[in-house]
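Dear H.,

Thanks for agreeing to be a second pair of eyes. The structure we're designing against is below in token form, covering all 250 positions.
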């Protein structure tokens, strides 16, 4: 009997290895891409791009690096501009106040009894002592109150701090009330502050200083110079903060 020959097709049990190898390859490529993206720089990106180009037969294209984004306004510049704007507004506010003070005290300004000035400290109103006090006295006379009350009306609602300073000439004074010009100058400044407080200017905004004869505005060698030195200065202090520089030790 003739033997039948069967060509039996042998079933392959290793086909899964092909799919598994493809999966592993794709997974490896995925992690390589993720790593390259996470630590990208120009050199690594170019090498990686060229390697992919070689692998897939594509053209090598050098990547265009994105320029670093520069902030349009840096924080120091912004702070500087804000500070400059605050300084400009403060100067304008003090200038308007100085004009109002000059207008209010115009008769005394024209007579040379009052002087209004503006500088980096603020606005200063210097009032000759003859307008406010009798000779050697610290009590305000009757004629002085009208000018001071008009001044208080302007200053009452103004937010700036006030510094009231008393000044004398070099002529010595010795009395039970005023052993020296220190006491006389401080008492005269205090009298002005008390009137301001009674007129509604907050006491917390005011300070008193007595300089005696130590800050003259004229020579004390003649009567006119001594008269100019006897004065009370009301300074409306600028709200701009003082800049402090610490001196390092050597």
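And this is the sequence the design step returned. I haven't edited it by hand at all.
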């Amino acid at each position: 009997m003739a033997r039948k020959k069967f060509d039996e097709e042998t079933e392959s049990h290793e086909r899964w290895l092909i799919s598994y190898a493809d999966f592993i390859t794709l997974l490896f490529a995925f992690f390589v891409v993720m790593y390259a993206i996470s630590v990208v720089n120009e050199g690594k990106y170019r090498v990686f791009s060229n390697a992919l180009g070689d692998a897939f037969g594509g053209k090598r294209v050098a990547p265009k690096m994105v320029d670093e984004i520069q902030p349009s306004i840096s924080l120091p510049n912004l702070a500087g501009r804000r500070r400059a704007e605050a300084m400009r507004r403060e100067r304008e506010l003090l200038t308007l106040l100085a004009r109002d003070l000059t207008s209010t005290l115009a008769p005394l300004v024209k007579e040379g009894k009052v002087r209004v000035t503006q500088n980096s400290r603020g606005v200063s109103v210097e009032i000759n002592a003859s307008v406010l006090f009798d000779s050697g006295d610290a009590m305000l006379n009757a004629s002085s109150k009208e000018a001071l009350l008009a001044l208080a009306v302007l200053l009452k609602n103004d937010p700036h701090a006030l510094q009231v300073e008393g000044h004398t000439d070099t002529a010595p004074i010795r009395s039970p009330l005023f052993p020296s010009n220190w006491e006389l100058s401080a008492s005269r400044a205090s009298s002005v502050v008390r009137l301001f407080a009674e007129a509604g200017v907050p006491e917390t905004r005011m300070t008193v200083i007595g300089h005696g004869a130590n800050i003259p505005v004229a020579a004390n060698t003649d009567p006119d110079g001594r008269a100019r030195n006897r004065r009370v200065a009301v300074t409306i202090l600028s709200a701009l903060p003082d800049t402090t520089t610490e001196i390092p030790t050597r």
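Two observations from my side: The longest helix spans residues 75-104. The chain has a mean pLDDT of 83.

Warmly,
E.
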